[in-house]
Amino acid sequence: MTEAAIVSERPRPKRRRRRVTAGTVGQYLALALTVAFTVFPLVWLFLTSIRSSADIFSVPVHIIPETATLTQYVSVFVEYDTMGYVWNTVIVSVATVILVHLLAIPCAYALSRFRMPGAMLIFGVLLIMRMIPVIALAIPLFAVFAAFGLLDTVWALILSHTAAKLPVAIWLLLGFMQDVPKEIEEAAQSDGAGTARTLVQIVAPLIAPGIGASAVITFLFTWNDLLLALTLTSSKAAQTLPVGLTNFVSQFGIDWGAMSAAGVLMVIPTLVFVWFAQGLLVKGLTTGAVRG
Amino acid sequence: MPPVAQHQVSGRRRRSPLPYTWQRGYLLASPALLVMLAILIYPLGYSFIMSFFRWDLSGSAPFVGMGNYTDELSGRQFNQALRNQAIFSVISITIEVVAGMAIAVLVNGKLRGMRLARTLLLVPPMIAPAVVGLNFRWLFNTQYGLVDALLRMFNLPDIPWLNHPTWALVSVIVADVWQNTPLMVLLFLAGLQSLPQEPLEAATVDGATPWQRFWHIVLPLMRPVIMIALMLRIIDTFRTFDVVWLMTQGGPGGATNLLTVYSYLLAFQAVDFGHAAAVSYIALGMSLFVLGLLYGVPWLIAKRRAI
């Protein structure tokens, strides 16, 4: 904003404006093309999900659906009984977010405030853990959970996602903790607040945006995960939506309409968070640029 | 709790070898650390050790030394997966970073609709790779898919996207590029907007062309952001599984087997956990090695120059 103010104060408005206009057309063109390429595949997914099956398997391809119908969505729930997958996914994602943050907030606080010996080792381990291919974790977890009889339960998924998402959450929260001035806490402590109270009543509210950012990211990456669910679950008792997507492939072919409808349903939480918590998401993705 | 002199009291009361604050620190950090130790580090260590055994869940697991690793490194399927992984990582990262930078530079400005564009750009990186995989599988369908339909409309020959080994790898790369380029754009945009303006204005005054400004000023200043972007993509391409699984399951004929997909197939189709664990550790080792090159080579060059 200040920059714009400075520009407008400058003399020679005529020449400047003409040059900007010429460049601006190109800029808008680039922006429009980028957005079109970004959005189009998703629009196509949506269009496929509202077509009738006859329309889906028509040659030549109709770009615009002949009729809009909800039959694919009905078949997702009636024929394929997808509600169970939805519930499992919701339970696993919500439980993971809660557990991760109950564990990560105190841990990040401890790492940012108490200079314990071994803190550097912990930082190093957190960084390495971020790089581990999920398959390297899924293989032994399959054996471990089999030994404990936890295979094919939502608990297997909740526990494994909690552990797998902890390093990123701790790392993100650490960044936000470091921005909280220590003086506020020292004031609270000199007023008699213990460590727990300082953390819950003083620090946590101050880093609420940070907690929000890491919660949204933890939720979406858990919601989206295919590999852990594919390895650790084998029945509808615990399978999640991404695994459910693979069930639309049968020996008779792929039910593209229902599969697209299920895909659209899977994308909804992302759209909701992107729309309503865009700031938190960007913060989460660019603070230390974490992912996964 | 009495507000006065709490520190003195607690300091005297607790006769512990550790200073007071350390205790608190360990106490607060320990639940998270214990969970990670039990569900992350212990299983990883376990599978690392088991990668030196014949491990097929049958009960007996004889020690095979480096056997699993040497088998894989000399095996045809592993080398195919390794080749696919190299092609996939190099091409998709190159396209994502170069296109991401180009788009970021082009749209960097105060444009109308920029906020909306940024919102839309956030969508692909945050949706499930599984959905991306299925959607591109549908777009690339040879009979009813949109892409071949468009090709036919312009009287171009059909492309057997997912049925041909080379084209299948191309398809997987396209899906990955579609999903991750927007993330690069957002990262680079954030970087561009925090650049200092003085050097750019000075260069303009000195009559530098836009290309010169970009090449000699913007790019060097953006180096830290580019390094982070490269690091993220290197880590993630070595972990790619979901997109490939929904698009091709590694086929046709192993043409799109990336290291993670190959490792999964070994473990859960061939029930050969020993080899699978070895492959997953080779994948980790390779991504660490590439990251080492990324950060080590510039460091070495800088050191050389200093001497």
Give an overview of the whole structure.
The complex is a heterodimer of chains A (292) and B (307). Chain A has 292 residues and is an all-alpha fold. Helix content of chain A is 75%, strand content 1%. Chain A has helices at residues 2-9, 13-49, 53-56, 71-78, 83-113, 119-131, 134-147, 154-177, 182-190, 195-206, 208-224, 227-232, 241-246, 256-276, 278-286; strands at residues 249-250, 253-254. Chain A has a two-stranded antiparallel sheet with strand order 1-2. In chain A, helix 4 (71-78) packs across helix 14 and helix 6 packs across helix 8 (154-177). Chain B is an all-alpha fold. Chain B has two domains: 16-50; 75-306, MetI-like fold. Chain B has helices at 6-13, 20-50, 67-74, 76-107, 114-126, 129-139, 146-153, 165-193, 198-205, 210-221, 223-237, 242-247, 259-268, 273-306. The radius of gyration of chain B is 26 Å and the shape is globular. At the A-B interface, helix 2, helix 5, helix 6, helix 7 and helix 8 of A face helix 2, helix 4, helix 5, helix 6 and helix 7 of B.
